Amino acid sequence: MMNRKHIRNGLIGAALVLLAAAALARGWDAPSLLPFEAEEISEIEMYQYIVPAATQKKTVSGPDQMAQVCRRIAAASVQPRTDEQSYTGGETTIFRFHLQDQRIFEICFTEPHFVRCTDGAVYQTPSNLGGIWKAMDVPAESVPESELF
User: Fold this and answer.
1) 3-state DSSP helix/strand/coil percent for the chain, to nearest 5?
2) Tens-place pLDDT, residues 26-77
3) pTM for the predicted model, two decimal places
4) What is the pLDDT of residue 69?
5) What is the sign of the dihedral through the CA atoms of 34, 35, 41 and 47?
6) Which residue from 95, 90, 104 is spatially nearest to 49, judged by alpha carbons?
7) Which residues does 96 contact at the CB level (< 8 Å), separation at least 6?
8) CA–CA separation, 38 vs 34, rounded Å?
């Protein structure tokens, strides 16, 4: 007959295995697109276009809206890419984060789910980050192509 100590140790071991499996499934060890917290942002400019000459821009500066953008981006599952393949011709969404310490960080999302960041990191994602731009209920304005670069 098993004593209580063996049963308890077995249950603890099983719980640790399940917790580790859940952590891997949720991607806890996966890279994050945001190397900062929402509280560090002073403003987010979001650009969207298919043709750069027809770029639209939305500016988000409210704390709740900035936190919402950050939550959606942070929830995106990403996998690093090592190939040099580039995607053009699809819808492009750029998130330009103006941080309180005067730094600027950008995430460029291009269909089909290709992500490039200011820090040079390149990812593939099943997430549609372009949907964040569409979901933000702030007015869009036309901007010159030169503002993108």
Assistant:
1) 35, 25, 40
2) 444 456 788 888 899 999 999 999 988 899 999 999 999 999 999 999 888 8
3) 0.76
4) 94
5) negative
6) 90
7) 44, 45, 46, 47, 104, 105, 106
8) 9
Distances (CA, A) of 99 to 106, 108, 135: 11, 17, 22
pLDDT category of residue 81 using cuts at 50, 70 and 90: confident
Number of residues written out for the chain? 149
Read off the tokens for 88: 């053009």
Per-residue model confidence (pLDDT) at position 23: 43
**Three-class DSSP labels, 41-76:** EEEEEEEEECCHHHCEEEEECCHHHHHHHHHHHHCC
